[in-house]
Amino acid sequence: MSSLSERMARLIVHGEHPYNAEPPLPRLRASYRTPAGDFYVRSHGDLPEIDAATWRLSVDGEGVGPLDLSLADLRARFPEATVTATMQCAGNRRADMRAVAPVSGDTWDAGAIGTADWTGVRLGDVLRAAGVTPGADLHVAFESHDVVEGRPYGVSIALAKALADETLLAFAMNGAPLLPEHGFPARAVVPGFAGVRSPKWLRRITVQDHPSTNPMQADDYKLFPPDVTAETADPAEGHTIETMPLNAAICEPPRGARLEAGETPVRGYAIAGDRAVVRVDVSGDGGRSWRQATLEHEAGAPFAWTFWEIVLDLPPGEHELAVRAWDSAGQTQPALLDDTWNFKGYLSASWHRVRVEVA
Ligand SMILES: Nc1nc2c(c(=O)[nH]1)N[C@H]1C(S)=C(S)[C@@H](COP(=O)(O)O)O[C@H]1N2
Ligand SMILES: [Mo]
Asked: Whole-prediction pTM value?
C-alpha cells in the first residue's frame, strides 16, 4: 500500500489539517469504480489512528440489548454484503457557486464524489441482532473516533434508512481494507445520502428517539434560502441534507482546454440521489441546442452514478459546453447557479458549464 503522502500528491489538496482533497476530473472519469487512492477525502478533524486488533464497536440505546463487537465479531456474526454506491459531499461543485456570491467552506470542484464497491455487513442485520423494533419512529446515531471542535464527530439517520438493504457498515472498498483516510477499520455507507451521513472511523451506534444533537447533525450540512446569511442563519430552520439532488458534470475536456477543430469526445458523470438517471443532454453552445449522450450504468447498482459520453463536432472559436441530466421523475437540473445559491455553497447542481477554445 502507498503512503498517505504519496496518495496526497496525486490529488488536488484543499487543506492538510483537516485533510481535504479531490482528484482531477479526467482521472475521476477514467474508471467507473474510483480507485481508493483517487477517491476524494473529506474530513473535519485530524485522521485518527486506530488499531484494528483492539477496535470495538458498541451498539446501545432504546430497546436495544447492548453489543460490543470486534471486527472479527462483525465478520463472524453477520453475512457479508457488497453494495456499489456513489459517495458525494454536499459541498461538491461549491467552487462554481462563488461566481454568484461568496460561500463558506472548501472550494470543491466537481471531484468531491466517487463510486466504490463497499463491502461489510448490513447495518440492519446488526441492529436487528441487537433487538431493535422496526417501524418505530427512531433515529440511529453514530459516534466516531475523530474529534471536531472538541467533540467526537457524530451524525444520525432515520431508523428506516438504517434498516434499508443498501445501508452498510463497511470495512472494505473495492475489495481492499478501507484506507485510513476513508474510515479504517469501519465506516457507515448510506447510499443516496450526502457523504456527511456516512461516518468514518466508527466507535458507537445508539438507537434513540431524536436525531443526533452533535453539531455536525444539528448545525452543519443544512440548506438555507438565498436571503439567509452566516449572521442570520438559525440551524434549526435549515433543511437537513440527506438525499442528494440530480447532478451532472463534465470531466473531459477540462475547463479552459485548447482543442483541435473536429471531433471532440466529451465525458462526465451524472447522478440522481436515490432515483435513476434516464437521459443526459450535452450542449456545445451554452445550452441553445442539446444532443443526447450515451449512458453507461450497471443494472445492479441503483445507488451509483451514470457515466456518459458524446462526441461533439466543434468548429474553431470559443465554446461553452454544458450538461444537464434528467431523472426517472422527468425532472432536470436548474440552468443557473443563481437558482440554488446558498451561503454555505451546498448542493451546487445547476448545469455544469465548461469553456473551451477550439483552434
Ligand atoms: N468520522 C467522520 N466521518 C465522516 C467525515 C468526517 O469528517 N469524520 N466526513 C463526512 C463527509 S462530509 C463526507 S463527504 C464523507 C467523505 O468520505 P470520504 O473521505 O471517504 O470520501 O465522509 C463523511 N464521514
Ligand atoms: Mo461532505
From this structure: 0.97
